[in-house]
Design a protein that fits this description.
Chain lengths: 100, 224
């Protein structure tokens, strides 16, 4: 695995690489709409099978602002669980208690 | 990938539900066994689920000019296998279908199959294969996470091509794959990087538990 003293450095390099991957589209392709591929898929279905009509729709569609909030909430819930775990593990190792 | 509500004909909705059900049922049994036998793994299970929860909520831009979601299933696939990953993915997909109108309940079977079963199977197999071939831990995790994400979208393309074959099912599959699978490549790589980093953290801080989950002895490599 990664040697201990280099670990933080490698983690930072990884995070920078992630940032670049996310930013790259805007640098290479600034004019694109960046619409969701889910929608592109539905469009493609309608194109290829023109007779098709969706036979069911969701009971509830959140309004766009609420939808943003709910996506953010979903990410936050996941992040909190991950963060709690990281904190727990660091706390245990700092207090000298090893895992098992 | 989430096929939107109502965008799969009823017969295919039923087929994918039936295909996915045994995996999810088996996963539920495995989780119960885990809770009973290895309570110290509960936290890692929760974290693996959290990865799926968090990552699948993000719409990331791709160089192809559209946006898509990573899946987050790689971590769970490697540590817990496809069946448990299917259960975790089902929970996330239900949350998104009901609260966000993202994906759907009719398409749940298909979406569970692509995201919770097929992708994780590909990732899990890749991981085991690479470790058998003595590849390093991080490269194995990276490849597995990338495949778990990317294969999800390839399978989604196949699900759609099967349901809407058009004149030529192969060209239809390629059309869908062109939309989803190509867009997904940079996102899958990003997900691979993130999961590899977190796996390194996990293996460093919980070598015994990770070793037990992977059924590999915590060697000097995993436990640095």
């Amino acid at each position: 695995m990664i040697a201990k003293r280099n670990r933080i450095w490698w983690y930072m390099v990884a995070m920078i690489a992630l940032a670049i991957i996310v930013a790259l589209p805007f640098m290479l392709n600034p004019k694109a709409g960046y619409g969701g591929s889910d929608n592109a898929g539905s469009d493609l279905i309608m194109q290829r099978s023109p007779g098709y009509t969706p036979w069911f729709s969701s009971f509830w569609h959140p309004p766009p602002e609420t939808e943003s909030m709910l996506f953010a909430l979903q990410a936050a819930i996941g992040a909190v669980v991950i963060g709690y775990f990281i904190g727990y593990v660091r706390g245990r190792s700092a207090s000298g208690r090893s895992e098992e | 990938m989430h096929i939107m509500e109502g965008f799969l004909p009823l017969v295919w909705c039923i087929i994918w539900y039936l295909v996915s059900l045994p995996f999810v049922a088996f996963g539920v049994l495995q989780i119960k066994k885990l809770f009973d036998g290895h309570p110290e793994q509960k936290m890692i299970l929760a974290v693996s689920g959290a990865f799926i929860f968090a990552l699948s909520s993000l719409k990331l831009p791709s160089v192809t000019g559209s946006s898509s979601h990573p899946t987050g299933t790689g971590l769970s696939a490697i540590l817990f296998g496809p069946a448990i990953t299917a259960v975790l993915s089902t929970i996330v997909l239900i949350f998104q279908a009901i609260l966000l109108a993202h994906g759907g309940i009719t398409t749940l079977g298909a979406n569970v199959f692509s995201m919770g079963i097929a992708g994780p199977i590909a990732g899990w197999l890749a991981f085991k294969a690479m470790r058998t071939l003595k590849a390093g831990m991080i490269p194995s995790v990276f490849v597995a996470a990338v495949l778990a994400d990317w294969v999800t979208y390839v399978v989604t393309s196949a699900e759609l091509a099967l349901a809407f074959p058009g004149a030529n099912i192969v060209s239809t599959f390629l059309a869908f794959a062109g939309v989803y699978a190509i867009t997904q490549v940079p996102l899958a790589i990003a997900e691979g990087i993130l999961i590899s980093v977190f796996f390194d953290f996990l293996a460093t801080n919980r070598p015994k538990t990770i070793g037990a989950l992977l059924k590999e002895k915590p060697t000097k490599e995993t436990a640095q």
